[in-house]
# Entry
Amino acid sequence: MPSRPIHQILSDRPFVCASVYTPVREVTRMMQDLHCSAALITEHGILTGIFTERDATFRVLAAGLDPDTTPVGEVMTHNPQTLSEDKPFGHALHLMFENGVRHVPIIDSDRRPLGVVTARDALALDALDFGAELLRREEITVIL
# Structure
């Protein structure tokens, strides 16, 4: 499964994309509405950062900032490592592991966001393998 291209993992899944000037509260509400743990942050349509649940917790709430007046561009992670959609999913897993992150933005050749791959996607692969293993065991039980 890690050899599958990232575009197959994304498969038209919605993601949150917001301008650097958008207030944090608005971004977190968009994240909540789409059940996303991160938002891709752009300036003039070009990816400039990523804002995650952890950023909201530690850079906004813990810092005592007002989410209604703080632009997300002030508290995002700037210049995150990215991948193109034609790379294998294993590349994203490697980036997550090496950099201790849970999200990898996927961009096109013009640095426009296409989506985000998350650690949850890796868990989905494990769940598929687990399901296949259960099916295999069930088939063996029927044979015996």
In short: The beta strands are 16-19, 38-43, 46-52, 77-78, 83-84, 103-107, 113-118. The longest helix spans residues 119-143.
